[in-house]
Design a protein that fits this description.
The complex is a heterotrimer of chains A (279), B (310) and C (702).
Chain A: H1 2-8, H2 14-31, H3 33-36, E1 53-54, E2 60-61, H4 72-108, H5 110-124, H6 128-139, H7 143-169, H8 173-180, H9 185-193, H10 198-221, H11 233-240, H12 249-278
Antiparallel strand pairs in A: 1-2
Helix pairs in contact in A: 2-4, 2-12, 4-5, 4-7, 4-10, 5-7, 6-7, 7-10, 8-9, 10-11, 10-12, 11-12
Chain B: H1 2-28, H2 31-39, H3 45-54, H4 61-73, H5 87-122, H6 127-141, H7 144-158, H8 174-204, H9 207-214, H10 219-231, H11 233-257, H12 262-271, H13 275-303, H14 305-308
Helix pairs in contact in B: 1-13, 2-3, 5-6, 5-8, 5-11, 6-8, 7-8, 8-10, 8-11, 9-10, 11-12, 11-13, 12-13
Chain C: E1 10-21, E2 24-36, E3 41-45, H1 52-60, E4 67-76, E5 79-80, H2 86-92, E6 97-100, H3 104-107, H4 114-126, H5 130-143, H6 149-154, H7 162-174, E7 180-184, H8 192-209, E8 212-217, H9 220-226, E9 229-234, E10 237-243, H10 244-249, H11 254-262, E11 314-315, E12 325-326, E13 354-368, H12 372-377, E14 381-395, E15 399-403, H13 410-418, E16 425-430, E17 433-434, H14 445-450, E18 451-454, H15 458-461, H16 468-478, H17 485-498, H18 515-526, E19 533-537, H19 545-562, E20 565-570, H20 573-579, E21 582-587, E22 590-596, H21 597-600, H22 607-615, E23 624-625, H23 656-660, E24 665-667, E25 673-675, H24 680-684, E26 690-691
Parallel strand pairs in C: 3-8, 3-9, 6-7, 7-8, 15-20, 15-21, 18-19, 19-20
Antiparallel strand pairs in C: 1-2, 1-4, 4-5, 9-10, 10-12, 11-12, 13-14, 13-16, 16-17, 21-22, 22-25, 23-26, 24-25
Helix pairs in contact in C: 4-5, 5-7, 16-17, 16-18, 17-18, 18-19
Classes of the chains: A mainly alpha (279), B mainly alpha (310), C alpha/beta (702).
Bound molecules: adenosine-5'-diphosphate (ADP), iron/sulfur cluster (SF4) (2 copies) and magnesium ion.
């Protein structure tokens, strides 16, 4: 309820509104990909077409084609589905794991906290990308594995945030009141504490979504992303960057697409934070 | 203070050990695949067994681990499968190149982000604040690989001012460093600037700033003496942790611009399953990350009298 | 700046100040006028949000981002402050006008030493050399009675206690000998005995330095102790002003009268002369009524007259009330002699069997010291003795108060009782069963329901994510009182009636409630399981006086009705005297004295009780009080004195024996007990701290 209300308040932050607008735009694109995509994203039609080239068999390559002749616009449109499926899924699983860890560490304290905190310290001491590269290089590149890798690498960070919030909230009188009426620990964590931590967590989730999109893009870019030929923005950049000197449009448009989506989430996060600070 | 230092160093050592165990388990748990990777997929069964025999792979796993660790600590990282030379021969020069890149990035980024962050945070909500904030959101939203594409398109393809690769084929060339540094600074400065701004904004609303103003101190003294000292504690930590992020960025940038650095090496090693090189690179990366984290923690304590004297 | 000697230091005329928020313009201060003469101390009193601080910020010309002075003038020694340039203002601030703040810790910069924060004042304003600045600061620290000035100069704020911090802030304000000192609730964050020291110091300042002062407080008793004239504010306006004597003895405005009716004075009594709470609550600044702001809460409200147009200040025409003015249309029609209708006497009730027995209960917390010194000396584990051998009991229907200053172990006791912590030794029997070592999750639902707690902080006591109804309903269900949904619901509504809240609060969320309403819900929740024992930890100390009185009365009414035993934890002896049957006085985790309320408030006193009694300000000019000032601050509970806990501050210390031996409880047959080495006979000879003149000699309209 109140989460919805805070989204309604977004009207008062133009930064947040722009962010939300960008995200909604891409969601619509992903949902209606079938309808709006001018060509089959996998069909090899006419290699190295510049943006605006007319296709002999009808239609225009608005954003040009890539080195094997696939329409870039269509690939971008279909590629939005990949990002908008994997990024939220990965963020969500990372959050489930991170929240459970954070709740347990912050509420139980003691050895649970020590163990969980040390584990996350160790994971967090890897440079993120090194961690991804090692994980993916070991378990192989696939959609599920990307989600596993992202969860593994992000959950400790989420845990730290949740733990910090819980350490603060657990000292509130209403938690003591719940304890003195004999509520179970998990009920206190999930019903009494977690709902009150949602403000900062929603902001963080938006930011993290941005990072996850970057991560998926980077993995694609480094050739560790989803196996071809499915359209994936990062992969599109990877496949065409060698030709960037001669045909910059091939990599340029996917870069713009991914940056705009990340920007959307970052602006939304900023707007939400501004609102939450206000009252 | 001293205890903290000892504790942090102990934690650093433990982390390194845990990481080494994990890496070892991950990469060397099955000797068969190690031999396959070293000798190639077309080696015969006997060849592999002979190699494993020679390199002590039939010992129990913990014996192998400790001898591996022993070699590692003495600087013997084994032989690179891909480069066919001892790992240390490729590792150190590459690391040197990355240090050059990193220093250049920090030299530009730190002053830029601190100044912008402080200016923005001094007067929350002012035009300057909004401009700086939105700019930094935008720049942090463009991932390194994307800004690398944008900047090369601009400076290499259209303007033709700068070279598109940074292989440094004819020795060190400052021009080749410009684009990699620009890409990294662009992505990283926004984050530090925003953290600095947030810290500054928070400090400026503190009652002790009000006290300083109502004491009749001139405004610049309020900022320089009372606000900055407190506002810069958080960014210090952020900057130290940024080194960890930079290590990720470096992989992408070096890969993109073919810069012969540590990041490109690590990526190459992973893509080629060059296990000894992966081990060495990962350990170095984790060492750098943990060391900077230690410095960040200790420094934070040092900068914060509330913790220092209690 | 120069001015004629007899001219007022400060002259404020028709000041209007607004804040601009998203909700629109909030007029925080309306038509405010005040003059302060040379070396005079003027008090500004009122409940939170009435605009006291805003006036102070306006004098400092520091209105923040969203505040603005809309009209009116503020003249300081003849100069209009509203017209000064930034540079002129800067020269004035900290040198001619200084300010002292509510939270000394927040007001000091945590990362600069005291020396560097003090020295910059003379260096900035008088361009003195470093050495001279140092000398002056050391001198000033000793003027504010801080010992060991060199050490304090080198210290960081967090290394000082609250009282020391406030003295440093005062020293900082006085360094360039200002003509006007603004004190905004300077002692609200401090303990009573520390407060007494600061109040004494503040009173000294104007004598010693001739400084004029504006003293802001919500506490009428404090105002009485330090000020010569007082301005009573309500909802942005001054409603009454005049000399202390005149206003405190013959308050004219119904609000001022109401305030006095809300304060537990030594003359009130919970049965014979209960508090007379003001009904309703403070209006929000943008929801003020037309006409008199106090109208909706006023018992003398006259429709058509009081709500017709804005009420102006009128002088009180009377020979002994010079300068007494009041903002009420009916001030001369109101007869204060007649007790108000709702201040009915309530019947006392019988106490029953023992519900709670505390038997040598002890609670130590382990703390781990990880410094090198501790590691080497092997003392890395130390104990905080939060509760040491507590011994007392409580009977059915009785109110037992536990009194003491911060850190004396009151809340620890509450935690052990509620099962949130286990006691280290001793027993804690509730209805005959030892529960000291039964943690809350092992107590039966019946046990849980029969032992409940009311919490201190209204903003924290309810979970902001759930509705009021859901939170009470959950308690009913958990205690197994009702099972069916509709029955639970009926019971919730019933409890809302009991705490006098409208039934539609069922669906409200806590953020839509005021502090007093939240505390009422907290009380309803505690009484959901028909408890035999309720422990209330400072339940009203965060509320405004007028609201607190109503909540206190409500709590006592419910208790009376349910024959519940109430353990009332408080730092405020005034409240405790009013509502408790028996009192336990604690200091540093130990019981110093226990007995019935009459026994505690009359000799023989424990020396600590005596000091505590003397420290509590009383808002009645006709009551006389002995002055006892305690040296120093509360010792740390980590490192308490070996002998008597009070030895470091005790004005009656005997000598070595107090340092070395823990005094035993000296008990009287009545149950009154005192832990002190001084023999009871000798303590009995001490004269009473408080003298209340007999009713016949009193002028006060009661
Ligand atoms: N910065 C602010 N922005 C908006 N409203 C404020 C601000 N400061 C105070 N107020 C409002 O102005 C009124 C007077 O506040 P204040 O002067 O702080 O009262 P007091 O000191 O008597 O408690 C209150 O209603 C308060 O909510
Ligand atoms: S003007 Fe009327 S409503 Fe206001 S205080 Fe006086 S009698 Fe009460
Ligand atoms: S025992 Fe000594 S120090 Fe303690 S209260 Fe009695 S006289 Fe004071
Ligand atoms: Mg105030």
């Amino acid at each position: 309820m109140r989460t919805l209300a805070s989204f309604a308040l977004l009207r008062e932050s133009w930064v947040g509104m722009i962010g939300a607008g960008i995200i909604v735009f891409w969601i619509l694109v992903a949902v209606f990909a079938q309808l709006i995509s001018p060509f089959d994203p996998l069909a090899t039609l006419q290699p190295f077409a510049k943006p605006g080239t007319t296709y002999a068999k009808g239609g225009i390559f608005l954003l040009g084609t890539d080195h094997i002749g696939r329409d870039i616009l269509s690939r971008l449109i279909w590629g939005s589905r990949t990002v908008l499926v994997y990024a939220p899924l990965a963020t969500f699983t990372a959050y489930v794991v991170g929240i459970l860890m954070g709740l347990a560490a912050g509420y139980r304290r003691g050895w649970v906290d020590d163990v969980l905190s040390r584990i996350s310290d160790i994971i967090l001491s890897f440079p993120v990308l090194v961690l991804y590269i090692i994980i993916i290089a070991t378990i192989g590149a696939s959609g599920v594995n990307i989600i596993i890798a992202i969860t593994f690498a992000s959950a400790p960070g989420i845990m730290r945030i949740v733990r910090g919030l819980v350490l603060d909230l657990r000292n509130r009188d209403y938690v003591a009141a719940a304890q003195t009426r004999g509520e179970s620990a998990w009920r206190i964590m999930l019903v009494e504490i977690l709902p009150n931590a949602r403000g900062p967590l929603i902001v963080d989730a938006c930011l993290r979504m941005g990072y996850v999109i970057i991560t998926i893009g980077v993995l694609g870019f480094l050739g560790l992303g989803l196996p071809p030929p499915d359209p994936d923005w990062g992969g599109m950049i990877n496949e065409t960057r060698q030709m960037a000197m001669a045909f910059p449009h091939m990599a340029l448009f996917p870069c713009m697409a991914i940056s705009s989506l990340i920007l959307g989430f970052n602006l939304l996060a900023d707007g939400l934070r501004e609102i939450s600070l206000r009252d | 203070m001293f205890v903290l230092l000892l504790k942090r160093i102990a934690f650093m050592v433990i982390t390194m050990i845990v990481v080494s165990v994990l890496l070892f388990l991950l990469l060397e748990i099955s000797p068969g695949s190690v031999a396959t990777k070293v000798l190639g997929p077309y080696s015969s069964e006997e060849q592999r067994n002979l190699w494993l025999e020679q390199h002590g792979y039939f010992e129990p796993i913990y014996v192998r681990y400790f001898s591996w660790l022993g070699n590692f600590v003495t600087g013997d990282f084994g032989e690179s499968i891909r480069f066919k030379v001892p790992v240390s021969e490729v590792l150190w020069p590459r690391l040197g190149n990355t240090v050059i890149l990193g220093v250049a990035v920090f030299a530009v980024m730190i002053p830029l982000s601190l100044v912008l962050g402080i200016l923005a945070g001094m007067r929350e909500g002012s035009k300057l604040d909004r401009t700086i904030s939105v700019t930094s959101i935008i720049t942090t939203s463009v991932p390194e690989f994307a800004s690398a594409v944008f900047l090369s398109a601009l400076f290499v393809f259209w303007l033709k001012w700068l070279p598109g690769t940074s292989g440094m084929a004819e020795g060190f060339n400052l021009k080749e460093l410009v684009l990699p540094v620009m890409v990294l600074v662009l992505y990283d400065f926004g984050y530090v600037a925003r953290m600095t701004r947030a810290s500054m904004v928070e400090v400026m609303t503190m009652p002790y700033i009000r006290t300083a103003v109502l004491k009749g101190l001139p405004y610049n003294k309020v900022i320089l003496k009372h606000a900055l000292r407190n506002a810069l504690v958080a960014p210090f930590t952020v900057i130290m942790l940024q080194i960890n992020w930079l290590l990720s960025g470096v992989i992408i940038v070096e890969f993109f611009f073919a810069y012969k650095g540590f990041g490109a090496l690590l990526l190459e090693a992973s893509l080629n399953q060059d296990i000894f090189l992966i081990e060495a690179c990962a350990m170095v990366a984790v060492f750098v990350a943990v060391a900077t984290q230690t410095i960040a923690d200790v420094g934070y304590t040092y900068l914060n009298p509330r913790i220092r004297f209690s | 700046m120069t001015a004629r000697r007899d001219a007022p230091i400060l002259e404020i005329k028709d000041l209007n100040i607004s804040y601009y928020t998203r909700a629109g313009e909030i007029p925080a201060v309306i038509d405010f006028s005040l003059t302060v003469n040379r070396s005079e101390t003027v008090g500004l009193v009122g409940e939170s949000g009435c605009g006291k601080s805003t006036v102070a910020w306006a004098i400092m010309q520091y209105m923040g981002n969203n505040g603005a002075i809309k009209s009116g003038s503020i003249k300081f020694m003849g100069h209009e402050l509203n017209d000064l340039s930034d540079e002129e203002l800067r020269k004035l601030r900290g040198s001619e006008i200084s300010m002292i703040y509510q939270e000394p810790f927040a007001a000091l910069n945590p990362s600069l030493t005291v020396a560097s924060q003090l020295m910059e004042v003379p260096i900035t304003h008088e361009q003195v050399s470093e050495n001279e600045a140092w000398e002056r600061c050391v001198q000033m620290l000793s003027d504010v009675h801080l010992p060991d000035q060199q050490r304090i100069m080198h210290a960081y704020p967090h290394q000082l206690s609250g009282g020391q911090q406030q003295r440093v802030v005062i020293a900082m304000a006085l360094l360039s000998n200002p003509s006007l000192l603004l004190l905004d609730e300077p002692t609200t964050a401090l303990d009573v005995t520390v407060e007494a020291g600061i109040v004494d110091l503040v009173a000294d300042i104007s004598k010693k330095f001739g400084t004029s002062q504006i003293y802001i407080s919500h506490n009428l008793g404090l105002i009485l102790e330090v000020c010569e004239r007082v301005f009573v504010m309500y909802s942005g306006e001054v409603v009454e002003q005049g000399s202390i004597n005149s206003v405190f003895t013959w308050p004219k405005h119904p609000y001022t009268q109401g305030l006095f009716g809300c304060i537990p004075l030594p003359t009130t009594d919970k049965n014979a002369a209960p508090l007379r709470p003001i009904r309703g609550q403070l209006p929000l600044p943008h929801e003020r009524p037309v006409g008199c702001n106090f109208g909706p809460r006023c018992d003398h409200f006259e429709a058509g007259r009081c709500d017709a147009r804005d009420v102006i200040m009128e002088p009180v025409v009377s020979s002994d009330a010079i300068g007494h003015r009041v903002r009420c249309l009916r001030w001369n029609e109101i007869d204060v002699g007649v007790p108000l209708a709702h201040a009915k006497a309530k019947p006392p009730f019988e106490v029953g069997e023992r519900v709670l027995e505390v038997d040598h209960m002890q609670k130590y917390y382990e703390v781990h010291d990880r410094s090198i010194a501790a590691l080497i000396s092997g003392q890395s584990v130390r104990f905080v003795k939060a509760n040491e051998a507590l011994d007392f009991d409580a009977r059915r229907g009785e109110t037992v108060a536990i009194v003491g200053e911060s850190g004396c172990g009151k809340s620890t006791f509450a935690k052990v009782l509620m099962g949130l912590e286990c006691c280290t030794a001793g027993e804690l029997r509730h209805e005959g069963r030892d529960i000291g070592n039964i943690p809350v999750h092992r107590r039966s639902s019946q046990q849980l329901g029969s032992l409940q707690m009311v919490f201190q902080n209204p903003s924290d006591t309810l979970n902001p994510s759930h509705t009021v109804g859901a939170q009470i309903a959950r308690a009913i269900k958990k205690f197994g009182i009702e099972k069916e949904k509709s029955k639970i619901r009926d019971r919730v509504l019933n409890l809302l009636d009991v705490v006098k809240l409208p039934r539609d609060f069922y669906f409200r969320r806590p953020r839509q409630l005021s502090g007093g309403q939240k505390q009422r819900v907290g009380i309803a929740r505690a009484f959901a399981g028909n408890p035999s024992l309720v422990i209330a930890d400072e339940p009203v100390s965060a509320l405004d006086v007028s609201v607190a009185a109503a909540v206190t009365e409500l709590l006592m009414d419910i208790q009376r009705e349910h024959q519940t035993t109430l353990l009332f934890i408080s730092h405020d002896l005034g409240v405790v005297r009013y509502l408790a049957d028996r009192i336990v006085v604690m200091y540093l985790g130990q019981i110093m004295e226990r007995g019935t309320t009459e026994e505690i408030f009359a000799p023989p006193y424990h020396p600590y009780t005596e000091a505590l009694l003397a420290a509590v300000p009383i808002a009645d000019p006709e009551i006389e009080k002995r002055e006892i000032l305690l040296e120093g601050d509360l010792p740390s509970a980590l490192d308490p004195p070996t002998g008597c806990p009070f030895v470091t501050r005790c004005p009656r210390k005997l000598g070595k024996i107090c340092d070395q031996q823990r005094p035993l409880m000296q008990s009287l047959p009545t149950g009154h007990a005192i832990a002190c080495h001084i023999p009871l006979e000798e303590l009995r000879r001490i004269e009473p701290v408080i003298y209340v003149p007999p009713e016949s000699e009193r002028l006060h309209a009661k």
